[in-house]
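Record Peptidase S41, 461 aa.
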Amino acid sequence: MPSSKLKQFGLVMTGVVAGVMISLNFSANADKTALAPLPVEELRAFADVFNAIKQGYVEPVDDKKLVTHAISGMLSGLDPHSAYLDAEAFKDLQVGTQGEFGGLGIEVGMEDGFVKVVSPIEDTPAFRAGVKAGDLIVKLDDTPVKGMSLNDAVKRMRGKPKTDITLTIMRKGEVRPVIVTLTREVIKVQSVKSKVVEPGYGYLRVAQFQENTASSVVTHLQKLAKDGELKGLVLDLRNDPGGLLHGAVGVAAAFLPVNTLVVSTDGRTEDAKREFRASSDDYLRGSRDDFLRALPKWARDVPMVVLVNGGSASASEIVAGALQDHKRAVIMGTQSFGKGSVQTILPLNNTTAIKLTTARYYTPSGRSIQAKGIEPDIVVEESTNGSAKRIREADLDGHLGNDRDPEAERKAREAQDAQGADEDEAAQAARFEQAGKDDYQLGQAINLLKGLQIVQNKNNP
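=>
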């Protein structure tokens, strides 16, 4: 391999290490830590492979393609959440945090070379077609998924609205593949929804943590109380896959005293060691207007129940963990997903970037939920038949371990094995409309709030 190409690869590697850390979560200067020396022997082996492909592969291969695949492989081999973002993927990520993108409406990961559905997003083509968490997508139209990168598979699933794509799915319990044809739509994720369930009791649903989620929560709280203060509030974080860290901090801050610790992060660099509090410095980003000034006064005192399940991940677990640790709310439902790691976006140039796991996060009491999840204060299954078993962080290949609870994975698996007597029956029963008339968990949450109200009235005649 010519020395110029080896030098070029070295520069790419240096860029990965030294790129300015402009994150969806926090920013830092890259010059705070010295660059580690490049591993000469390992790079020589890479150069030998590079040269062998250039000289002997059956067809000519572009240098850029080889280096791009090498970078992608380095990252995908670390853990399920680190990835290389080409220009299109980087743009999609930025657009997605604003709440609108084109596609089918599923959160996905990779397992054994196939695309695995983590969770369908409600009110999207995938959700309406019955795509389920845990499904393995093995073919996209007539193209096998095996051998594709996750980014390539996502690109194929996204496309122009009103165009069709056929998914071939392997599903546990099904003898034959499940084949569904979906019509792509512009996916608009409405981050926050709310309604008055019955007089005095409000329902607040956060579907995903986006740029303006926390400010939307304040707006919805104002609407819920237009006829007077609430006696109880249900915060629904079920099937919320997460999103922006500062959005989670802002939502938690709406219900906690000012400057209360919400979450801390810890990693190898000084910039990864941080505390995030219920303070405008931590939940405002690029905005001078503190939306929590318009927060109804009752919001920080109203009795609360937070609903979680196996689809509640990352940012939603941060909020649930903070409210649980500070005894601000009762957590109800089933054990959450267990994603306790922080991903930072490091641009390589103006169009591409890497998404790198840089820290673990911890609840205010110091708990790590990585590969474990949030354990509800009160376990309530999704229906009287039980809960559908879902894929969790501990089920993902190459996941990070829990550094503060070595038994976390065993406990999480035991909790999952214990839920639901009949998986197929439970899964069918669990496909209810959230906040609809058949929402068993919401009904139990309202019953609990009424009980808390009775106790409160007895203590304060």
